[in-house]
Amino acid sequence: MSLVPIIIGIIFLAIIFIKQVDQYEKGLLFTLGKFSQIKEPGWRIVIPIIQKLQKVDIRVKAVDVPDQEVITKDNIPVNINAVVYYKVMDAEKAILEVENFFYAVSQLAQTSMRNSVGEKTLDELLQKRAEIAEQIKVELDQKTDPWGIDVQALELKDVIIPEQLKRTISKEAEAEREKRAVIIKADGDRIAADNLAAAAAKLNETPGAMHLRTLQAVNDLSSDQSNTTIWMLPIEVLETLKSVGKALNK
Predict the structure, then answer these.
(1) What is the spatial distance between Cα 218 and Cα 43, in angstroms, rounded to a whole number?
(2) Whose CA, among 17, 161, 175, 204, lies 20 to 30 Å from 105?
(3) Is residue 138 scored above 80 in pLDDT?
(4) Higher pLDDT, 132 or 212
């Protein structure tokens, strides 16, 4: 008797009765339309017609949330998009509690994002993107728990604002930088003036200090031959010199 028909029959039965569940999957076995058990990875026997095996991918998935037009708390229209990373933690709930968990997560992410951004001002949205993303992620995670889904991360990718508003923000930032520069310069001038006043008071209090400072200034000027020094003398000194000169002539 030839073994070929027997081998072909075994292969045929294996194709019909044996289903493979991959390592990154969970298998839900339905018997007569009723969920019966979870099938782990490997080859599993499934009786046709009576039983059906539905596989669920339990790897981390990324959902790209498309652009959403949102009105911020201060009535500024912005377009915002995001990406959500989630994982199926309970395959039974993911299949039995929601019709299409991938589509449901995407829609829920859109509504949660619109609601959360609508409660923030534009400045908060631009300055606290990571904090807002974390708030949306926590809210989304709580709502998907009954579906056996764990939202692991949510990232706000782009916040698109009108071009006219971009120019306004740019001018505001430039004005803010100029204001800081003026304040820093004024503080520097004030500190310099305080130091000069303190130095002048110290020189005035110390006998002979002013003369030493004058001599030091003369020495600094005389070190460079290109400098021209003009001495300003009080009129009394000039009158005294004239008197001395007349006396010597006599």
Answers:
(1) 101
(2) 161
(3) yes
(4) 132
Share of the chain above pLDDT 70, in %: 74
pTM, rounded to two decimals: 0.63
pLDDT score recorded for residue 214: 64
Q: In this structure, are 122 and 47 located in the same domain?
A: no
Closest to 33 (Cα-Cα) out of 10, 6, 60, 52: 52
For residue 113, give its domain range. 61-161
Looking at the fold, whether 144 and 75 belong to one and the same domain comes out as yes
Confirm if 47 and 18 have CB atoms less than 8 A apart.
no
The pLDDT of residue 239 is above 70:
no
Maximum pairwise Cα distance, the chain: 161
Does any domain span residue 235?
no
